[in-house]
Design brief:
Layout: H1 2-16, H2 18-46, H3 51-63, H4 68-85, H5 91-100, H6 105-119
């Protein structure tokens, strides 16, 4: 019964104060972005971003008081750019310089995309001549010994 009353009070407050509903909606989105950060950093590692770059980005973001949600968005942009254009050497230093310059949000995401388009290694899936299908073009360590690659 108490739960119903509090739910009713909350719903009434949100209807009476639409700005509060918008704030709580944006706060919820920020919390969800923050909760995705570990998965996003793991994806970056899988895509080849060195652990030292990830640590450097997280440390500099903490120093500059960049929110975890913004860092997650940054790494999601990086992951997408890697899939499209390939990795960029010394990505951590690039991001640190841009954070020092004060870039945040969309401006930082645009800078990342431009860097990958200009200096990305390899070819993304939409690039003419890109390899089709799944798997790695290079040989896996076990393949040279006649073992199958991949997870078991």
């Amino acid at each position: 019964m108490k739960t119903r009353i509090w739910t009713l009070v909350l719903m009434t407050a949100l209807v009476a104060f639409p700005s509060a509903a918008q704030e709580s909606s944006s706060m919820l989105a920020s919390v969800l972005q923050t909760l995705r950060l570990p998965k996003t950093t793991q994806e970056a590692r899988t895509l080849g971003v060195p652990e030292s770059d990830i640590r450097a980005i997280l440390d500099r973001a903490r120093e500059k008081r960049v929110s975890a949600a913004a860092v997650n968005e940054l790494l999601e942009t990086e992951n997408k750019a890697i899939r499209e254009h390939g990795p960029v050497d010394n990505f951590g230093a690039f991001v640190q310089r841009r954070l020092d310059e004060g870039l945040r949000g969309r401006d930082l995401a645009d800078a990342i995309r431009a860097e990958h388009a200009a200096h990305g290694k390899g070819k993304g899936p939409d690039t003419p001549g890109a390899a089709k299908g799944k798997g790695h073009a290079e040989e896996t360590p076990g393949a040279a010994k006649g073992k199958k690659g991949g997870s078991r």
